[in-house]
Amino acid sequence: MSLKITDECINCGACEPECPNEAISQGDPTFKIDPKKCTECKGVHDEPQCVPVCPVECIVKAA
């Protein structure tokens, strides 16, 4: 399973440096998460690191 960034993203960039897998990058028009790289931080952290730093809570589980 991976996470995704919804259209509510305000492009603040807070999430990008938190990802240990470099799965988050600037997209057009918002940041995006590469589902092939996203592991929800498993094996590195107990919880995804990008979710709590998002000021608009737009990082959610991908369907």
From TrEMBL:
Superkingdom of source: Bacteria
Pfam families membership: Fer4
Cofactor(s) named in the record: [4Fe-4S] cluster
Residue span, 4Fe-4S ferredoxin-type domain: 1-29
GO cellular component: cytoplasm
GO molecular function terms attached to this record: 4 iron, 4 sulfur cluster binding; metal ion binding
Keyword Manganese: no
Assigned keywords, A-Z: 4Fe-4S, Electron transport, Iron, Iron-sulfur, Metal-binding, Transport
InterPro entries: 4Fe4S_Fe-S-bd (IPR017896), 4Fe4S_Fe_S_CS (IPR017900), PSI_iron-sulfur_center (IPR050157), YfhL-like (IPR047927)
PANTHER family assigned: PHOTOSYSTEM I IRON-SULFUR CENTER, PHOTOSYSTEM I IRON-SULFUR CENTER-RELATED
NCBIfam families registered for this protein in UniProt: di_4Fe-4S_YfhL (NF033683)
Protein name: 4Fe-4S ferredoxin
Classification lineage: Bacteria, Pseudomonadati, Pseudomonadota, Alphaproteobacteria, Rhodospirillales
